[in-house]
Design brief:
This protein is mainly alpha-helical. The protein is built from 4 helices and 2 strands.
Length: about 80
Amino acid sequence: MHFNVDAMPPERFAQWVDSTRSAGPVLDSKSYTDLAKPSAAVTPFTYHSVAPGLFDSIRMASMQSDDALCRRYPTSMRAEK
């Protein structure tokens, strides 16, 4: 993976942030699913905002419930309270 970095004065960066937040799509569950797919040579783009709770839903999707974790071990290995 290769990323180009453009250094700029703080004022110019603030202008870029303002312009980015005023246009473009929202990063939501659907657009995240598309973004997570393998790709190559994609033109850089930005999202003007992120859907509330997106980070937590991504994080929780990869976790197992307590019950699922317990089923991975024999009963004799479970910690008793």
